[in-house]
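Side project, low priority. Logging it here so it doesn't get lost.
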Amino acid sequence: MATFDLAKALRRLKPQKHLTRLVRRDEADLRFAENEELAGPQLLLDTCVYLHVLRGATPSQVDALLKTRTLLHSAIAIAELTNHFGARIPSNEAERRAQDTLAATIDDIPEHRVIVPSTSVWGEAGILAGMRARLGAYNKGQEQDGLNDAFMLIQAREAGAVVLTVNLSDFDLLQQLEPNAQVLFYRSTR
């Protein structure tokens, strides 16, 4: 079993040096898909990307990037997608079809492109999510909400990939705490 070097992670992330409340950066300072070259680093897809593709809510530049770049799929995103099957029992034919489409999408994810968080990712993501909760704008009881996003960000950094997401509010703040990780944002069309 791999071990986690907590001291090394704390030296790298330096939670004690982050004392001021985080605020979202101006969108002009963020990296957006609409300005991105088609060729470039591999993308790690946030859960929202799968859902927007299924709904036809991705802009054409995102569709082009998804066809051009190497795509990585996080076990975290797969867990978030499969959560839908336990959280909601379809009550009509439209909901059954939507679940069937989601199931087919999950089944189509190439196994060799799925990445699983290492012990280091789990440990660093926990620290990062804690920093985000302490310095961000979460309401009481929402502290755990940023943990999966922190997993994705650290996992992408470890894999040398860029997170593709529509989630500006969380990933902008997380990236401020972990500037070595790369994020590519987009706006959904619906």
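Brief comment: The chain has one domain: 27-185.
Revisit when time allows.
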